[in-house]
């Protein structure tokens, strides 16, 4: 019982892992082709390319014969068109049309209407082909085709897929408009224009007009008056009129000036200037000096000499 339980658990784990793997593969997004016209490789399948189911009445016993028949009836190229809105159309080409009647199509399990775009059969030199255009979900869709084969006297069912898209249309008839990207680019200034400094404008450069046009008298008067006013505002360093700077050789003292502000000369008749200062002051100063000297001598001999 224990071994049986272990085997059952392993089997369940293996199934769960397979389910996860299948789910992850199914969830991978498929990128659709962009707006354009493409030539693709058309591949016929007697078995369903995804499920492996055979719907044809010949069954698995006729798989080899059925695959050979589908390859003979299907042209090796197909046309894939994607319009600006993202809708995808596939045009397949069936061969041996002189032996085929009433082909019908399904896309991913749903019936669709197909349009006959061109055909080439009915004569000995014809290729016996016909092109059928239908809307599909994407270029990865599976197209199911069922048709009556006259030589076999019964209906045949097979599948077609497209791959390896390359830009082009071959000899197929196209119906989709391809929008070309705009080639115009916004105008840009040249680097030299953006980096080169501009020369100063002539309007801002100083213009000398004195040598070409005579100055206006009114303007001259105004300028002179402005100059005078500016000079009058400057601090004056000139001395009052009639007043002279005392000579550096003069000795400070009392000096006399007349009513007009002129200095009165103190020169004597002999032409020599009087000595500044009062003579009495000098006598007093001299006397004080003499008395101080005498007092100092008396103190020396009387007091200091006596102590010693």
Straight-line N-to-C gap: 147 Å
String of helices and strands: HEHEEEEEEEEHHH
Residues in β-strands, percent: 15-25%
Write the CATH architecture name of the domain at 32-167.
Sandwich
User: What is the helical fraction, as a range of percent?
Assistant: 25-40%
Radius of gyration: 64 Å
Structural class estimated from helices and strands: alpha+beta
| Multimerization status | single chain
CATH topology tier name of the domain at 32-167: Immunoglobulin-like
The largest beta-sheet arranges its strands as 5-4-8-9-1-2-3-7-6
What does this structure look like?
With 308 residues, this protein is an alpha+beta fold. It has a domain at 32-167: Immunoglobulin-like. The chain is 28% helix and 22% strand. It has 5 helices and 9 strands; from the N terminus they run αβαββββββββααα. The protein has helices at 2-26, 63-73, 191-195, 217-233, 279-307, and strands at 36-45, 77-82, 88-94, 100-107, 110-112, 115-120, 129-136, 143-149, 154-167. Strands 5-4-8-9-1-2-3-7-6 form a 9-stranded antiparallel β-sheet. The longest helix is centred in the last third of the chain and has 29 residues, at 279-307. The chain is rod-shaped and about 175 Å long. The termini are far apart.
What topology emerges from the helices and strands here?
Blueprint lengths: L1 H25 L9 E10 L17 H11 L3 E6 L5 E7 L5 E8 L2 E3 L2 E6 L8 E8 L6 E7 L4 E14 L23 H5 L21 H17 L45 H29 L1
